[in-house]
Amino acid sequence: MKQFTSIKKTLTVATLAALVASGCTVLDPYTGEEKTSNAVKYGAGAAVVCGLIGATKNSKYARNAALGCGAIGAGVGAYMDHQEAELREELAGTGVGVKRNGDKIQLIMPGDITFETDRHDVNADFYPVLNSVAKVLYKYVDTDLEVAGFTDSVGSDAYNQELSEKRASSVASYLRQRDIQAGRLHVKGFGERYPIAPNETAQGRAQNRRVELTIIPQEPS
Fold this sequence. Notes:
It holds the Pfam family OmpA. Residues 102-219 form the OmpA-like domain. The chain is of the alpha+beta class. The chain is built from 9 helices and 7 strands, in the order H-E-E-H-H-H-H-E-E-H-H-E-H-E-H-E. The protein folds into 2 domains: 2-74, no CATH class; 82-217, CATH 3.30.1330.60. The model is unreliable at 2-64 (pLDDT under 50). The termini are far apart. Strand 1 (26-27) and strand 2 form a beta hairpin. A 5-stranded mixed sheet has the order 3-4-7-5-6.
């Protein structure tokens, strides 16, 4: 029975790929939009296959599907579109912001939900959120990940720089524990530089204490 199921899944994958390659109309599983031969021309058709298979709950098949998606030349924009859609679904209501900037996806993790005050180890209550992030990142292997830490302006420059680096390192370390390859992760600390809100108010300082994870498509080799 298990062998039959495996064969059935393989045939389903092959059938979907053939439909897209031949220019047949298929439905994007995220948007419901019909994709035709024009989409294939720009690589989006391959991403449809990736999305259809990658949506499976089985992590092994999901990872293989995402690998295949990159291998068969899905357009970068389409590849990132599907990754963004999954991240938004996984992170809805968690307090983590999801921003799109061209072909980059930025996750903004506020310090007040990620860390205890003046600590750099990840708050245990935040583990499920990082697990959701890792689940998506594990599937979309054709991306690099910049993990950047930031602080407010309270304290010395040197202290804030060190704290920002340690917080970014803690997030990256946790993602490595969730099977995200170390080579994809690049850790940076910016201290109190690049505030996103005024440091004169408690609310502004809370916004500035954060970790940002920027997901960047890898350059073709």
